[in-house]
């Protein structure tokens, strides 16, 4: 017989990994989130490229900030479109009860977080490549750029995972989404936009480090708060 | 190991509508409780409360197992739940579903044991088919495999034979007979033929 749901770390991590692999396998067979993410990222890059262009524009501070803002808006909306689906899909296909009965709540959160993180790495890569090619984004310090993107992506993954869980369990999904997403996502986005602009315009790695530190702190705080809150959301 | 279910003054409401109230009973190992009543009388809600998938409006339910009392919410390791609204992953095969749930339940089970379980519920040879290709009766049989995977001492069966053919209904008979030997069964049904399982009968009124 199964053992009671204790909080032994190796068992929790093994269950979380099983959930991640299950979500990955399901995703590769259904393309439920990947299509939405990639199509949104490609549409945003094409629209920005054709609509704004930036051909011949001088590389001023404002220009870098606008490029950075457009990049993060594309990342944000693609992430919101795709990342919430992990939980919403379980709710829509009514598999949530089977998962609730079988898996410890923390393992579910960790598994879904890992899956969102994997999707976000894909999203970051596709969107940035498209922007670099189509919007002619020139990166001053590639290492700083990658660090800011990774830290900002981590913030997006932590915030959208707990948001998606709350939304999937709520009756008024769209209204709740707007109310919750605004305070959770706007502060890290502002920092990510400013740090990305610095990374685009400077060769030195150091200019983006304060922003990266703040973003990582924010991601850790959101992650810990989510771990503490998730059980109440999941069992509501 | 000894197992019993104690329900005390249990009540459930949806908004202002009380579904049932002041339900008290005790089920001991080897007994089958059948919950009967019309559609909407609260049978499924009662089972969801016992599975810990919903919270009661008042009262309590406890499982007593191995000298400890367990609330349904913390007793998922003791419970196997079968219901028409229990869905498994359609994009995965039956074997992949069972392997996944075994991992998250921390149950050690190999492919031979999964095959034996699939044979037991009449899905032998169909383990590698994706659920999307299953009929409703086959999907219902697989719910039994999901529920029996960890050999729980408590089996909660909501409409146990719905969508099943004659052979499927025989499988349910065997599952209930086996479960009597080491645990308890709670059946929710509005099929008069299934009253024959009952050692105890809980009759809910009109909705």
TrEMBL record, chain B:
The keyword Magnesium does not apply. GO terms for molecular function: ATP binding; ATP hydrolysis activity. The keyword Ribosomal protein does not apply. Pfam families: ABC_tran. Keywords: ATP-binding, Nucleotide-binding, Transport. Residues 5-207 form the ABC transporter domain. This is Heme exporter protein CcmA. It comes from Oscillochloris trichoides DG-6.
């Amino acid at each position: 017989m199964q053992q009671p749901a204790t909080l032994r770390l190796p068992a929790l991590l093994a269950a979380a990994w099983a959930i991640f692999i299950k979500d990955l396998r399901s995703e590769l067979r259904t393309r439920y989130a990947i299509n939405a993410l990639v199509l949104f990222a490609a549409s945003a890059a094409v629209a920005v490229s054709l609509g704004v262009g930036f051909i011949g524009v001088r590389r001023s501070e404002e220009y870098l900030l606008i490029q950075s803002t457009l990049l993060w808006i594309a990342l944000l909306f693609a992430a919101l479109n795709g990342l919430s689906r992990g939980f919403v899909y379980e709710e829509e296909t009514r598999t949530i009860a089977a998962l609730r009965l079988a898996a410890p709540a923390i393992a579910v959160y960790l598994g879904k977080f890992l899956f969102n993180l994997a999707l976000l790495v894909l999203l970051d890569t596709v969107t940035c490549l498209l922007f670099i090619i189509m919007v002619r984004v020139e990166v001053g310090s590639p290492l700083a750029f990658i660090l800011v993107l990774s830290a900002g992506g981590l913030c997006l993954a932590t915030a959208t995972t707990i948001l998606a869980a709350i939304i999937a369990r709520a009756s008024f999904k769209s209204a709740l989404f707007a109310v919750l997403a605004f305070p959770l996502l706007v502060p890290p986005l502002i920092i990510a936009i400013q740090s990305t602009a610095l990374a685009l315009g400077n060769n030195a790695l150091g200019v983006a480090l304060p922003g990266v530190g703040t973003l990582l702190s924010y991601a850790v705080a959101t992650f810990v708060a989510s771990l503490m809150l998730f059980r109440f959301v999941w069992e509501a | 190991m000894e197992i019993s279910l104690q329900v005390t003054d249990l009540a459930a409401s949806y908004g202002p509508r009380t579904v049932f109230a002041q339900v008290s009973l005790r089920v001991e190992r080897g007994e089958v409780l059948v919950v009967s009543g019309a559609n909407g009388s609260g049978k499924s809600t009662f089972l969801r409360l016992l599975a810990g998938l919903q919270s009661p409006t008042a009262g309590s339910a406890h499982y007593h197992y191995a000298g400890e009392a367990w609330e349904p919410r913390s007793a998922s390791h003791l419970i196997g739940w079968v219901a028409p609204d229990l869905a498994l992953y359609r994009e995965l095969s039956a074997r992949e579903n069972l392997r996944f749930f075994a991992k998250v339940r921390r149950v050690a089970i190999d492919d031979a044991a999964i095959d034996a379980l699939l044979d037991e519920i009449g899905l032998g040879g169909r383990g590698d088919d994706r659920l999307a290709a299953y009929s409703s009766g086959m999907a219902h049989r697989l719910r039994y495999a999901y529920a029996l995977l960890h050999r729980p001492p408590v089996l909660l069966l909501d409409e146990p034979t719905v969508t099943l053919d004659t052979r499927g209904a025989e499988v349910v008979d065997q599952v209930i007979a086996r479960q009597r030997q080491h645990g308890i069964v709670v059946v929710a049904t509005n099929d008069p033929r299934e009253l024959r399982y009952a050692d105890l009968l809980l009759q809910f009124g009109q909705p």
